[in-house]
Specification:
about 0% strand; mainly alpha; disordered N terminus; elongated; 2 domains; 12 helices
Length: about 240
């Protein structure tokens, strides 16, 4: 993953992702062990200072113990009990990091907050659609409809994306033509336009001007290709595909 300080190679004026991949528990094992050992050592220093009546040693040990304990608590909290972050989840989707977004959605669905669960259910539709998991998408779509979700534009958009992902072009075109573009983000408008162009002429190069930069968001075309290889290949059919604009 690119560091924030390196900037974004696709959009030079924007920073790289502010959300690096969440480390797995095993990847932070050494950090947990080091902090635990530091807590024990500082606790020993505190006890030694107390038993020898040396105030400076006792204060130094106590401060170090509190500091290392706090650091350890933070590491344990975010490694083993991470919370749902709407901003992080939305950014991962915008960057086409769908597997990570799916993990974030799972956190949201398990959250105590009703609002977080509802937000996760809404974002899950796009993740499942873009991953091409039709059966799971249809279940999630039906659940939102049954619950009285009023975002018909989002339902039509994600249904069109899901149909395009499985290359059901007639369904994709029918769903996407229902979408009100002004209600979508710039990235989703560009994606809708590209998918409509693709649905109308699946075997031809795009005839209408497309906006691959907007579709990619903060991702590169190579990163988009990992998430949706066929879409990236379609964008590469453009006559001006040598320059990603």
């Amino acid at each position: 993953m690119k560091a924030v300080t390196q900037g974004n190679p696709v959009h030079p004026g924007r920073p790289a992702s502010l959300y690096p991949r969440r480390p797995k528990p095993r990847e932070r094992a050494s950090e947990v062990v080091t902090l635990s050992a530091s807590c024990l050592i500082s606790a020993a220093i505190t006890v030694a200072g107390l038993s020898s009546s040396r105030l400076v040693v006792w204060v130094a040990g106590a401060v170090l113990f509190l500091l290392f304990s706090l650091m350890l608590a933070v590491v344990l909290r975010w490694t083993f009990w991470p919370g749902f972050d709407l901003g992080r989840c939305s950014t991962l989707i915008d960057e086409w990091r769908l597997d990570e977004a799916q993990d974030e959605v799972a956190l949201g669905l398990a959250a105590r907050s009703k609002e977080a669960r509802e937000q996760a259910e809404i974002l899950r539709l796009f993740v499942l659609a873009a991953q091409g998991d039709t059966a799971a998408f249809q279940r999630a779509h039906a659940a939102l409809v049954a619950r009285g979700f009023e975002g018909t534009n989002w339902l039509a958009f994600t249904a069109g994306v899901c149909a395009a992902r499985r290359q059901d072009w007639s369904t994709a075109q029918e769903r996407l033509e229902r979408v009100s573009l002004p209600a979508l983000t710039e990235q989703h408008v560009a994606l809708t336009e590209a998918l409509l162009s693709w649905a109308q002429n699946p075997d031809r190069a795009p005839s209408a001007p497309l906006k691959p930069l907007a579709i990619c968001g903060h991702a590169t075309l190579e990163e988009l290709a990992r998430a949706w290889p066929e879409l990236a290949a379609y964008l590469q059919r453009r006559p001006d595909a040598t320059t990603l604009n």
